[in-house]
């Protein structure tokens, strides 16, 4: 009896994923609208405020009519990673009163972290790391290792006295834990999600058709003002920041800087996006939990039956 009651309390997730331009957004919107539920974005670029056109972010009207989580949550100069995504996405699932949610996006590392978990880690502190590297330059790696032995003797015994990366990381964790005494770091390993049943679904689109969809989307982004968006963002943030290294933004920066002509930048975005889609498909073909469909209606019907059963 207790097992049955526990299963009844489990929430359900439909994860709609696939390569870029495979219709994930449209599918998730249709499913969310038909079932009056919400969407958790699984896109590593849509988390950034202001990066709208180049990330194919849903328009404001859509975001106001169907609630989306984890879109427009950080500034470009703030650190964000899979661990933070996992934590925030699981918080949404734990806190919602809804029985089911939709996860939509193509960032497979984010989806994997949400469903399968990650090994222990804490947030990063760039200033602290710079300070540690300066100390290594001035005093040597052994000096830092001796500091680690004082603050975390257990960790120091697990690593070599020359292991620069891990020495800095363990010192950083110690530093962060002391900086957040009222808000302890959760460094426990995070395993597979426990409070949900889920399926992963996607549309199988032939490469030739997907290439055409990619070219069309890039042209639409340019028409909507991609280069103007990037130019405005470059006035606010350092162009070396992580979001500017993503496809579309990196090439636009090269155009704005005079390194590429406009048509060269556009063609390069298309080429890079097609290559990225190929890598996404390679990843997904290895995922034996993916359920592929040849048509949107079939995918939506299957997903609805799973959620409401």
Tell me the span between the first and last alpha carbons: 19 Å
Strand order within the widest beta sheet: 3-2-4-1-5-6
Mean pLDDT: 90
Based on CA atoms alone, the radius of gyration comes out at 22 Å
What is the helix/strand order? HEHEHEHEHHHHHEHHHHEH
β-strand amount: 5-15%
| Main sheet attributes: strand count, strand direction, barrel closure | 6 strands, parallel
Summed up:
This protein has helices at 2-9, 24-35, 60-65, 82-95, 108-116, 126-139, 141-151, 153-158, 164-179, 207-224, 226-236, 249-256, 262-285, 296-308; strands spanning 11-16, 39-41, 68-69, 100-104, 196-203, 290-293. It is α/β, with parallel strands linked by helices and 309 residues long.
What report would you give on this structure?
Helix 2 packs across helix 14 (296-308), helix 6 packs across helix 7 (141-151) and helix 7 (141-151) crosses helix 9 (164-179). It is globular, with a radius of gyration of 22 Å. It has helices at residues 2-9, 24-35, 60-65, 82-95, 108-116, 126-139, 141-151, 153-158, 164-179, 207-224, 226-236, 249-256, 262-285, 296-308, and strands spanning 11-16, 39-41, 68-69, 100-104, 196-203, 290-293. It is α/β, with parallel strands linked by helices and 309 residues long. It has a six-stranded parallel beta sheet with strand order 3-2-4-1-5-6, sandwiched between helices. Helix 3 (60-65) links the parallel strand 2 and strand 3 (68-69).
